[in-house]
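Exercise 7b. Backbone tokens:
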């Protein structure tokens, strides 16, 4: 949903693609 997309967008800015590969949605 929109919430999941929001977390993914924040993740890109916070940890970057490399880190988000291991932690796609750390808040969930």
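Sequence design result:
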């Amino acid at each position: 949903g929109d919430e999941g997309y929001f977390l993914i967008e924040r993740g890109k800015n916070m940890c970057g693609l490399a880190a988000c590969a291991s932690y796609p949605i750390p808040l969930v």
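Instructor comment: The two ends are 13 Å apart (CA to CA). The chain has a mean pLDDT of 58.
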